[in-house]
């Protein structure tokens, strides 16, 4: 999925996380500053992606940002095959769709298309009518979409009608929307709902999952994402940012690390599983590194290994519930 976020528009954490999880094979983004085009990619964990995204948004508020979440159809699941791709020092792009017949076991179809087509076109080809027309026709016939960003902060969407605009932001498909799983909303990995801690929003008074809220000193309470972005509550520039996600405000732990309320809730959750190292029924604690640490033997378990453990172990922890009632 491609997201084109023009400067000044707002996109919520929940929208980004839903898109990231629905397209889990690597993320990236592009932006500009001082007439320089920047591409950062190779994010395979949401926390790192989100922290970088918000940092760019704060540091360069005038830039348009184009985000891409990948589903691999060809090529390795690695950083080079993540989007966006650089055409030259003035232009980069992201692609949603499949260029049939172009991918290999090592290189994605988009990487091959960039090397064999776009990089061979004359510089500034988007401003040449006949080339632009041919590119439009080719992309539309293949049911694809492209989004370009140049060093002057101009974005160009090829086949825009195949996507949709929502609150000033363009999405190439609807995988950013929540999907219901057995009657529950899927917020996290494998159909589990880790959002069983709820608070009442002090603005709209609705009961909302804590991970979809932020603490604001101005109103002395938790504010849901909807009220937060619709009212544009100021958080103040003198606050420390959260070291995990980059959001305001934060509290500093004894280790000198700053957390917002959302990340603190997520980082302090722990689950009982059978450790693959000591084989004990013990607690695995989520760390800042996105790994899990066994409190019994001190071994580290990666998120992928942890997700396997969730399937293999009967879990009764109160922090989450299976969507099928188990």
Report on the structure:
With 326 residues, the protein is α+β, with helices and mostly antiparallel strands. The protein folds into three domains: 2-171, Aminohydrolase, N-terminal nucleophile (Ntn) domain (Glutamine Phosphoribosylpyrophosphate, subunit 1, domain 1); 195-267, no CATH class; 271-322, no CATH class. It has helices at 13-22, 46-59, 109-116, 129-141, 225-231, 261-267, 303-312, and strands spanning 2-5, 27-33, 36-43, 65-69, 85-88, 91-96, 145-150, 155-158, 164-166, 169-171, 180-181, 184-185, 192-193, 198-200, 207-209, 213-216, 221-224, 251-252, 258-259, 270-274, 281-286, 292-294, 300-301, 321-322. The strands form eight sheets. It has a six-stranded antiparallel β-sheet with strand order 3-2-4-1-10-9.
The strand count comes to 24
Query: Helices and strands: which structural class?
Result: alpha+beta
What's the architecture of the largest domain in CATH terms? 4-Layer Sandwich
Largest sheet: 6 strands, antiparallel
Average pLDDT reading: 75
Strand content: 25-35%
Helix percent band: 10-25%
Report the C-alpha radius of gyration, rounded: 21 Å
CATH superfamily grouping of the largest domain = Aminohydrolase, N-terminal nucleophile (Ntn) domain
Poorly predicted sequence stretches spanning 5 or more consecutive residues: 180-196, 229-239, 313-326
- How would you write the strand order of the largest sheet? 3-2-4-1-10-9
- Give the helix tally: 7
Give the terminus-to-terminus CA distance: 32 Å
- Outline, from the CA principal axes? globular
Count of the separate structural domains? 3
The CATH top-level class label of the largest domain? Alpha Beta
Q: According to CATH, what is the topology of the largest domain?
A: Glutamine Phosphoribosylpyrophosphate, subunit 1, domain 1
């Amino acid at each position: 999925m491609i997201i084109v976020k023009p400067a000044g528009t707002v996109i919520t954490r929940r929208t980004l996380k839903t898109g990231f999880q629905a397209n889990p094979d690597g993320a990236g983004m592009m932006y500009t500053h001082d007439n320089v085009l920047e591409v950062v990619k190779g994010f395979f964990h949401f926390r790192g992606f989100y922290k970088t995204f918000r940092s760019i948004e704060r540091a360069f508020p005038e830039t348009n940002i184009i985000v891409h979440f990948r589903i691999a159809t060809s090529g390795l699941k690695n950083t080079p095959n993540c989007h966006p791709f650089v055409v030259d020092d003035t232009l980069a792009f992201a692609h949603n769709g499949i260029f049939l017949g172009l991918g290999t076991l090592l290189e994605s179809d988009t990487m091959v298309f960039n090397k064999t087509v776009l990089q061979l076109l004359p510089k500034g080809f988007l401003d040449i009518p006949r080339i632009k027309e041919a590119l439009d026709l080719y992309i539309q016939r293949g049911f694809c979409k492209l989004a370009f960003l140049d060093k002057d902060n101009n974005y160009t969407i090829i086949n825009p009608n195949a996507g949709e605009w929502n609150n000033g932001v363009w999405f190439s498909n609807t995988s950013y929307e929540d999907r219901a799983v057995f009657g529950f909303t899927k917020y996290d990995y494998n159909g589990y709902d880790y959002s069983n801690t709820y608070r009442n929003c002090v603005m709209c008074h609705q009961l909302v999952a804590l991970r979809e809220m932020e603490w604001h000193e101005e109103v002395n309470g938790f504010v849901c994402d909807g009220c937060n972005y619709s009212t544009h509550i100021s958080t103040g520039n003198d606050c420390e940012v959260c070291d995990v996600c980059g959001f305001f405000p934060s509290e500093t732990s004894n280790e000198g690390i700053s957390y917002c309320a959302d990340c603190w809730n997520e980082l302090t959750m722990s689950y009982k599983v059978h450790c693959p190292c000591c084989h004990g029924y013990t607690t695995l604690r989520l760390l800042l590194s996105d790994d899990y640490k066994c409190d019994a033997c001190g071994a580290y378990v990666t998120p992928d290994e942890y997700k396997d453990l969730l399937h293999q172990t009967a879990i009764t922890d109160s922090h989450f519930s299976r969507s099928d009632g188990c």
